Amino acid sequence: MATMHRHPHGAMFFDSLSVAGKDGTLVGRLGALAGKVHGKTGTLDEVCTLVARVETRSGRIVAAAIVMNKTRNKNVAMRKAQDQLITLVADKL
User: Using one digit for the tens of pLDDT, what is the confidence trace for 38-47?
Assistant: First the structure.
């Protein structure tokens, strides 16, 4: 994410990602940060991930990656925890 932020094709890359509150796998997530988070989600047996570019409330752009293993079929709860972590990043950085 950090490399693509500076890459000549970065805009095209970020346009291909889901946008919080707007489309893709993030359409129903992170509503308070709608349009401020571009990311890629992933789910496998007992694994739930979110990699994102986050625009913080102070205007900084930061990269975040959350990988949760051994989720034991609790991916809905894990997604909620991911959203809480991303919101914390957006609020505090």
Answer: 999 999 888 9
DSSP 86: H
CATH tag, 2-92: 3.40.710.10
Which helix H or strand E contains 2, and what residues bound it?
A: helix 2-6
Of all helices (H) and strands (E), which one includes residue 66?
strand 61-69
Do 53 and 37 meet the contact criterion of CB atoms below 8 Å apart? Answer: yes
Residue 67: Cβ within 10 Å count: 11
Q: Which two tokens stand for residue 56?
A: 């913080």
Mean predicted confidence (pLDDT) in 57-62: 94
How far apart, in whole angstroms, are the C-alpha atoms of residue 25 and residue 49? 12
pTM equals 0.90
